[in-house]
Design goal:
The complex is a heterodimer of chains A (about 550) and B (about 300). In chain A, about 70% of the residues lie in helices and about 0% in strands. With about 550 residues, chain A is mainly alpha-helical. Chain A has 2 domains: about 260 residues, no CATH class; about 240 residues, no CATH class. The two termini of chain A are about 40 Å apart. By secondary structure, chain B is of the alpha/beta class. In chain B, strand 1 and strand 2 form a beta hairpin. The chains are: A mainly alpha (about 550), B alpha/beta (about 300). The interface between A and B is large, with 38 and 45 residues.
Chain lengths: ~550, ~300
């Protein structure tokens, strides 16, 4: 750590930091643990599983080919430089994703310790104590920096213990830590800009998501070098653990962290308690939301607008990317060989490829809906459902308003991203037309509903384990992205509802999957509704 | 439903959260048109009772009747006829107070426009601020305006004025009085003694999940002792001292307490000792409740 106010040599601005930090680590430290555990699990599992699933050279080469042939995977994981060694495989699988998780952990830690406390009024109690102006921000930042460091040390050490190469694994671990640090800086700045925790989190996570997708995109389409070097996540990728092992790009990340933190403390010194740079003006005097439907939309409106823009952009990224399949079919590639031998029908190949691209978009399209459902729970716990239920609103109607909104949103998002992808794909001489690709985007919607229905079930019937609402998204993500390359059997791939989406681009379309996913959606939703109707509200 | 049917009729209500028994055979009756005080120490089960009445929690045991219906089953029909103000008002952070009032009114199905306007003015509420910008008292005002502007026949108020300033407290008392004049029944949970004294017709006191006392303030007062302060010409003897309790003597000044029904007898006794100054005070409300809460623990 660097910036001058950030030194712990207790200047008056930082009085009380040591005490507050110790208390915060004691009480909130464990909330960083899941992120640390996920990174560790991700990395340790790949060094343990890889030699077991891919014991000999032949299997490994087959894997490399499978990954090379499916660049959709590269959008998330980045380039697969070397899948023939355990370390190379681990670097490919965990560099981007581990960094993403470490960054999320850092963002939530900083925002919670600064804006979150200001929203809940806890910060006011603290700030009235013997405490410098910058103490709370400094504490949040210190916690996040420590958390990211611990992530690197623990996940890295365990990876080495479980069989990872020392230098390769160390460098990999450093990229997670430095990614966590950079986003500590970004979150610290965002916490000064947004006027509440929600806005600050949205700014930080939005930045992370954008940089993450751009990194994958630039590598996948083999974009220009500046596209990589303007992206801090690109610096991490350029360290190339288990490849060239470049250590110096890490220093760029550390320098950026320092600059961001200095900026955050400068902004912090100039703002009023509880205020941000973005100041909300007076709102409407009269309300237009006149029922549970209006309320659900009123609460979701802000983020729905943001997501709408995001999905149009995702459409461009994925659509442009979809056109890259022409490069793959070029002479000399393994796919071209398969095509030449007549083993694969080119139409089917393009169809499969577009479905796999749309599957990725579908996973993203499920996220806003799960957020809508989880908001039902947070509204409940913050005692805002109580006054609604005290009016003439039946529980099923209140729940239905949110569920229907959660089901409608994916149609909008898939429609938007789909039309952009369809337009780009049809213009790229892939032999597909706009209509069928767009229709395919809508064909994914019933499967997205099943993913969303998992959260309908959890929030309705088992809200104590609210985090399980993400189970559908997480499982689909893992199966869709890793299943095929890990040679999962069909029954395992079939756990993902997206696997059942009918493909209308190929010659003969199999529609039976639609029935299955709808059956599950209905089942999950029914249990959710029954649970929400029967259970006590706002009880832990 | 006839006029004499109680608006709230609860018998033997029990509710547990895991091993913790929050309500333990609670009985509560609120008759039509009365303002019923619902009092008790913190954590005694007031809010849990109210949440059962609102159908938010399901009773484990006991009969609960609200406006002649079952609060768990007849949610919609019953909630059209009642309005509720929670103790901790949590507003939607990005929604203005005006929007929240209109939403809650629309959800209930009744919002008297003229009264909304009038209440906003009387409570001096800025309806264009957003939920997160309101202070505690102003959040409560938003909830109060939403509830009082409705045509509900029952108001359930859970410590509605804990954040209001004395001026607003006065406005609140006036509006409740007006509601009562319209024939509205009110269940009022409160810790503010003056409010309870001015507004309530009857009171129920809850302690550790069951009602320990119900009655009018006067009924409850008969159970507590009056304080006598007297100046006597002669030093009292054992006969007098035996008739009084908590006696303290300092020179010719005597302080003691007696049951309200014994005040006359005590007077007669005291005059025998040459009474030169005398004051008899009924127990103050604070003292009354201290005694009632305290007794209930035993």
């Amino acid at each position: 750590m660097t910036a001058q106010p950030a030194t712990t040599s207790a200047g008056p601005k930082a009085t009380g930091t040591r005490l507050l930090l110790r208390t915060s680590l004691h009480h909130d430290g464990r909330r960083m643990a899941p992120w640390l555990a996920l990174v560790t699990l991700l990395s340790v599992s790949s060094v343990l599983v890889y030699p077991w699933v891919f014991p000999d050279q032949e299997d490994r080469e087959a894997l490399q080919q499978a990954i090379d042939a499916n660049p959709a995977v590269g959008l998330i994981f980045g380039p697969a430089n070397d899948l023939l060694t355990t370390d190379g495989f681990n670097a490919w699988r965990t560099l981007a994703l581990g960094g993403f998780l470490a960054a999320m952990g850092a963002i939530f830690t900083v925002v919670r310790a600064t804006r979150g406390q200001e929203d809940s009024g806890q910060a006011e109690l603290l700030a009235s104590g013997v405490m410098g102006r910058s103490t709370r921000l400094l504490t949040g930042v210190a916690m996040a920096l420590i958390g990211a460091l611990a992530t690197g040390i623990i996940a890295g050490a365990l990876t080495i213990v479980c069989g990872g190469g020392t230098e390769n694994s160390l460098l990999l671990a450093c990229t997670w830590t430095v990614t966590g640090w950079m986003f500590t800086g970004i979150a610290a700045v965002a916490a000064q800009i947004g006027a509440d925790a929600r806005t600050s989190t949205a700014i930080s996570v939005g930045t992370l998501g954008t940089l993450f997708i751009l990194r994958g995109f630039v590598y996948s389409v083999e974009g220009p070098a500046w596209g990589i070097w303007i992206n801090p996540l690109g610096w991490m990728q350029e360290t190339a653990p288990a490849g060239d092992n470049q250590w110096w790009p890490l220093s760029l990340g550390i320098a950026l962290t320092a600059v961001l933190l200095a900026g955050a403390f400068a902004l912090e010194g100039g703002r009023d308690f509880g205020q941000g740079l973005i100041k909300p003006g007076p709102g409407p005097e009269r309300g237009r939301a006149r029922g549970p439907w209006g309320l659900a939309w009123r609460l979701a409106k802000g983020s729905a607008i943001t997501w709408t823009i995001a999905f149009v952009l995702l459409g461009f990224v994925f659509g442009y990317f979809a056109t890259s399949i022409t490069d793959l079919i070029q002479e000399g590639s393994p796919l071209a060989a398969a095509l030449a031998s007549g083993a694969v029908n080119p139409d089917d190949l393009v169809g499969e490829f577009l479905v796999s691209v749309l599957s990725l978009v579908s996973i993203f399209a499920a996220i806003p809906s799960v957020q809508v459902m989880l908001r039902v729970r947070s509204e409940e716990m913050e005692d805002r459902v109580e006054p609604i239920m005290a009016t003439a609103t039946a529980r099923p109607r209140y729940y239905a308003a949110n569920v229907v909104l959660a089901l409608l949103l994916p149609i909008l998002y898939m429609g938007l991203a789909g039309v952009v992808i369809a337009a780009l794909a049809s213009g790229a001489e892939l032999g597909v037309d706009v209509g069928e690709v767009w229709l395919q985007a809508f064909m994914m919607v019933p499967a997205i509903w099943t993913i969303v229905a998992v959260s309908v079930l959890i929030v309705g019937a088992r809200p104590k384990v609210a985090v399980a609402a993400w189970a559908g998204v997480a499982a689909t993500f893992v199966i869709t992205l890793l299943g095929p390359s890990f040679k999962f059997p069909d029954w395992a791939l079939g756990i993902s509802p997206l696997w059942h989406a009918p493909n209308v681009i190929v010659a003969d379309t199999d529609w039976t999957g639609l029935g299955w996913v709808t059956l599950f959606t209905l089942g999950f939703a029914l249990v959710g509704f029954a649970g929400f109707r029967r259970r006590d509200l706002a009880v832990e | 439903m006839s006029e004499s049917t109680p608006v709230i009729d609860v018998t033997g209500l029990t509710k547990s959260f895991g091993k913790f028994r929050a309500l333990n055979g609670l009985d509560l009756t609120v008759t039509r048109g009365e303002v019923h005080g619902f009092l008790g120490p913190n954590g005694a089960g007031k809010s849990t009772t109210i949440r059962v009445l609102l159908g938010l929690l399901k009773a484990d045991e006991g009969q609960v009747s609200l406006l002649g219906g079952d609060p768990w089953k007849d949610v919609v029909a019953l909630h059209r006829r009642l309005a509720y103000v929670p103790g901790d008002v949590s507003l939607w952070p990005g929604m203005t107070g005006g929007e929240a009032i209109d939403l809650l009114g629309a959800l209930r199905g009744s919002l008297d426009e003229a009264r909304r306007q009038e209440l906003v003015e009387r409570f001096e509420l800025d309806t264009t601020k957003r939920g997160r910008q309101y202070s505690k008292g102003n959040k409560q005002k938003v909830a109060l305006v939403a509830a009082l502007a409705s045509d509900a026949e029952l108001l359930i108020l859970d410590e509605p004025t804990s954040g209001l300033d004395p001026l607003m407290e006065q406005v609140f008392q006036d509006t409740i009085q007006e509601a009562k004049d319209r024939g509205v029944t009110v269940l009022l949970s409160s810790h503010i003694m003056s409010e309870v004294e001015t507004l309530t017709d009857r009171i129920s006191i809850i302690r550790e999940g069951s009602i320990v006392r119900t009655g009018t303030l006067d009924d409850l007062r008969t159970d507590t002792r009056s304080t006598i302060t007297a100046t006597l010409a002669r030093t009292p003897d054992a006969a007098l001292l035996a008739a009084l309790d908590d006696v303290t003597l300092s020179g010719h000044d005597l302080t003691a307490t007696v049951e309200p029904s014994q005040v006359g007898d005590a007077m007669a006794l005291l005059t025998q000792y040459g009474l030169s100054d005398l004051a008899v005070q009924p127990a103050s409300l604070e003292k009354l409740f201290l005694e009632l809460y305290d007794q209930a623990t035993r």
